[in-house]
Amino acid sequence: MLSAKLTSNAHGQDSSYFLGWEEYEKNPYHQIDNPNGIIQMGLAENQLSFDLLESWIKNNPDATGFKKDDQSIFKELALFQDYHGLPAFKNALVRFMSETRGNTVTFDPKNLVLTAGATSANETLMFCVANPGDAFLIPTPYYPGFDRDLKWRTGAEIVPIQCSSSNGFRITRSALEDAYQQAQKQDLKVKGVLITNPSNPLGTSLSLHELDLLVNFISTKNIHLISDEVYSGTVFGSPNFVSIMEVLKNRNLVNNEVSKRVHIVYSLSKDLGLPGFRIGAIYSGNEDIVAAATKMSSFGLISSQTQYLLSEMLSDRKFTKSYLSENRRRLKKRQETLVKGLQKSGIRCLKSNAGLFCWVDMRDLMKSKSFEGEMELWEKMVYEVRLNISPGSSCHCSEPGWFRVCFANMSDETLAQAMQRVKSFVDSKKNNHNRRHQILNNARRTRSLPKWVFSLTSTQLEAVGQR
């Protein structure tokens, strides 16, 4: 008596990415109330600059009091608004989008569609571009939520562009062509490529070479390119962020046929740390997509009150400039703290320059160099070390042993506790490894132990060493 959509398993909720969250919610860490709980390091949330936002709100009571020129506009905001959004907010948002990109490009508010977060924006673009059964190519590793956001309700398919650690998981021409050929072998019509820039989960911004490759590829194949740029304002290191819009501008492709197949997704969830406000946007030079997406946005509108508050905040250019600079400084400092903390345990990270997370190499901690070994390690991290981190397999990484570890959603003290837990875990593994070797070496030297000792498993040898 229920729909096929409801009863299917296509949502992806059984991914280890979501399962880790479920375990955290059963036993959340609290420094005082539950010090042995699970620390949430699987949530890409920016809590480092709330004080800056709260300070602005305190100093601008008219914005939260819904006043303009000391006159109440509550009734105006409370009554019906159409789905085009408040002009003042759209104007302020496109200026902020330019600012996060170093003012290298400008955006026209007429090409902007407001959505309830980036999740809604990505799905809306899928509805506009792809039919059920059509495919989008996405570089791996990619954000686990895309399996839900892009596929669940639209019926679209994802074909991975396999990227490798050998070149820092960079996109190559051969990887693009291989993915396209793979889709054709599966009788899938490729409608486009979707990228996250900066990358989630890698924490790296795409190079100009990669962006040029992508523009050339979609031009040759006559397909679309969606650039999810929700982390554009979190770039805290070299190289600087380059938006796909800047590439089109520099190649004199703005307003031509190629630019009509390039679309940007943006939100204030990461750069401004406001995921609960549900502020997302689609930017496209394609009039048909803007018109259709605007109509679809009626299913996920942003409240007028939210738009008004943020239009006032983003119009304060002195504040936004100061905020972006200080937020980047804090992100860089926190990222360095995580990297150094992991290095003390002998764990390295992919060199990154953006985002709210690091791509962490834990291959040396696995018993077997396989995805089964990765899941075994992940379970130990969640249930024994009590850290919720996201395994690379949930991000469709082709190489086992990589994990996404978030660093901006907790206090300095909580991060220090997490690093201490990691170090204790690694030290314990080293001690057990050394103990097993000592037992075997002693046995070989003395020949005093019976033959059955040499057939013991590593677990049994560990138990012997603990007696």
Automatic annotation (TrEMBL):
Domain (Aminotransferase class I/classII large) ranges: 39-422
Keyword Lyase: yes
Gene3D superfamilies in alphabetical order: Aspartate Aminotransferase, domain 1, Type I PLP-dependent aspartate aminotransferase-like (Major domain)
One Pfam family from the record: Aminotran_1_2
PROSITE patterns per the UniProt record, alphabetical: AA_TRANSFER_CLASS_1 (PS00105)
Root EC class: lyase
Domain of life, per lineage: Eukaryota
Any one GO molecular function term: transaminase activity
Entry EC no(s): 4.4.1.14
InterPro entries documented for this protein: Aminotransferase_I/II_large, Ethylene_sulfur-biosynth, NHTrfase_class1_PyrdxlP-BS, PyrdxlP-dep_Trfase, PyrdxlP-dep_Trfase_major, PyrdxlP-dep_Trfase_small
Keywords for this protein: Aminotransferase, Ethylene biosynthesis, Fruit ripening, Lyase, Pyridoxal phosphate, S-adenosyl-L-methionine, Transferase
Family: Belongs to the class-I pyridoxal-phosphate-dependent aminotransferase family.
Annotated protein name in UniProt: 1-aminocyclopropane-1-carboxylate synthase
Organism: Cynara cardunculus var. scolymus (Globe artichoke)
